[in-house]
UniProtKB/TrEMBL annotation:
<keyword id="KW-0511">Multifunctional enzyme</keyword>
<feature type="binding site">
    <location>
        <position position="231"/>
    </location>
    <ligand>
        <name>NADP(+)</name>
    </ligand>
</feature>
<dbReference type="Pfam" id="PF02882">
    <property type="entry name" value="THF_DHG_CYH_C"/>
</dbReference>
<dbReference type="InterPro" id="IPR046346">
    <property type="entry name" value="Aminoacid_DH-like_N_sf"/>
</dbReference>
<dbReference type="InterPro" id="IPR036291">
    <property type="entry name" value="NAD(P)-bd_dom_sf"/>
</dbReference>
<dbReference type="GO" id="GO:0035999">
    <property type="term" value="P:tetrahydrofolate interconversion"/>
</dbReference>
<dbReference type="InterPro" id="IPR000672">
    <property type="entry name" value="THF_DH/CycHdrlase"/>
</dbReference>
<keyword id="KW-0521">NADP</keyword>
<dbReference type="InterPro" id="IPR020867">
    <property type="entry name" value="THF_DH/CycHdrlase_CS"/>
</dbReference>
<comment type="similarity">
    <text>Belongs to the tetrahydrofolate dehydrogenase/cyclohydrolase family.</text>
</comment>
<keyword id="KW-0658">Purine biosynthesis</keyword>
<feature type="domain" description="Tetrahydrofolate dehydrogenase/cyclohydrolase catalytic">
    <location>
        <begin position="6"/>
        <end position="120"/>
    </location>
</feature>
<dbReference type="GO" id="GO:0004477">
    <property type="term" value="F:methenyltetrahydrofolate cyclohydrolase activity"/>
</dbReference>
<feature type="domain" description="Tetrahydrofolate dehydrogenase/cyclohydrolase NAD(P)-binding">
    <location>
        <begin position="139"/>
        <end position="280"/>
    </location>
</feature>
<keyword id="KW-0378">Hydrolase</keyword>
<comment type="function">
    <text>Catalyzes the oxidation of 5,10-methylenetetrahydrofolate to 5,10-methenyltetrahydrofolate and then the hydrolysis of 5,10-methenyltetrahydrofolate to 10-formyltetrahydrofolate.</text>
</comment>
<dbReference type="InterPro" id="IPR020631">
    <property type="entry name" value="THF_DH/CycHdrlase_NAD-bd_dom"/>
</dbReference>
Length: 287
């Protein structure tokens, strides 16, 4: 068997084309979705993520405002900036790029963002809404993963989903979203014993660990759908996922590549959430 590749890059492209049309329609009614991004410090990875998000906004017709501050900013100053953005009428989404310097509490920052502008979907109110199946801003990476699975009309209901990794931004919420879609969900993590027993029984295997070649063909059930969330740099400086692509491709029915898989979908769902926020604010589709 050779797996069919689910290209996040292609799916993201077509979704962004649709969004471009939507922002053009909104503009006719005087609405321009606006995203504010705060970047603290000079971390190269964060800088490149923020740049990619801004470029994607521009291409999609979303106003993006960037506030790049130095690490000398105090927690209080940063929280004040967020409070001002909470009040700004033209801003529908607020994103504070993580990680933050040690002297700033990520928890406080996330909880200061107005839940109605929390387009990253990290605020406990949005997490609670998601868990209880209410309308919410869904966290972008898990949301993108579900969209990728659905794009291939893969049946989720009643399927055994195994999620390897239980972080608050990927593992936990992606399992929850798939549970909402009526999957039976198992989580594996660093304390899981005999992990291969679980991964080999997965109809849909989601891997979000952050280690190159963590999952190989031998860990995968014949015909499983495999979603590789990992982003690692190998010794040659090349981007790789958590899944050994060559051996996984022989076992899986569907497989996502790295790069060009989950990554482009994450940014796309951020754009989606920002547009949705603008629409909700103007009661264009009820909250
Ligand atoms: P994280 O917070 O470091 O979480 C890693 C998870 O992997 C933890 O739950 C950890 O278990 C588990 N783990 C570590 N070693 C393990 C082992 N030996 N066996 C089983 N489980 C193990 O990472 P994250 O933020 O979720 O990100 C995971 C990967 O996805 C990273 O490579 C990251 O760069 C990538 N990522 C990609 C995107 C994208 O848009 N493409 C977005 C976000 C993240 P414990 O909880 O027990 O420690």
């Amino acid at each position: 068997m050779s797996a069919e590749i689910i290209s996040g890059k292609e799916l993201a492209k077509s979704k962004r084309e649709e969004m471009k049309k939507e922002t053009a329609r909104l503009k006719e009614s005087g609405i321009v979705p606006g995203l504010a991004v705060i970047l603290v410090g000079e971390d190269p990875a964060s800088q490149s993520y923020v740049k990619a998000k801004q470029k994607a906004c521009e291409e999609t017709g979303i106003l993006s405002e960037m506030d790049h501050v130095t690490t000398s900013i105090s927690e209080e100053e940063l929280l004040t900036k967020i409070e001002n953005l909470n009040k700004a009428d033209h801003i529908h989404g607020i994103l504070v790029q993580l990680p933050l310097p040690d002297h700033i509490s990520e928890k406080k920052v996330i909880e200061t963002i107005d839940p109605e502008k929390d387009v990253d979907g990290f605020h406990p109110i949005n997490i609670g809404r998601m868990m209880t199946g209410q309308q919410a801003f869904l966290p972008c990476t898990p949301f993108g993963i579900v969209e990728m699975i659905k794009s291939k009309n893969i049946d989720i209901q009643g399927k055994h989903v195994v999620v390897v990794g239980r972080s608050n931004i990927v593992g936990k919420p992606v399992g929850q979203l798939l549970l909402n879609e009526h999957a039976t969900v198992t989580y594996c993590h660093s304390r899981t014993k005999n992990m291969q027993e679980y991964t080999r029984s997965a109809d849909i295997l989601i891997v979000a660990v952050g280690r190159e070649h963590f999952i190989a063909g031998d860990d995968i059930k014949e015909g499983a759908v495999v979603i590789d969330v990992g982003v690692n740099r190998n010794k040659e400086g090349k981007l790789t996922g958590d899944v050994d692509f060559a051996s996984a491709e022989q076992k899986a029915s569907y497989l996502t590549p790295v790069p060009g898989g989950v990554g482009p979908m994450t940014i796309t769902m951020l754009l989606h959430n920002t547009i949705l926020s603008a629409k909700w604010k103007h009661n264009l589709n009820g909250f």
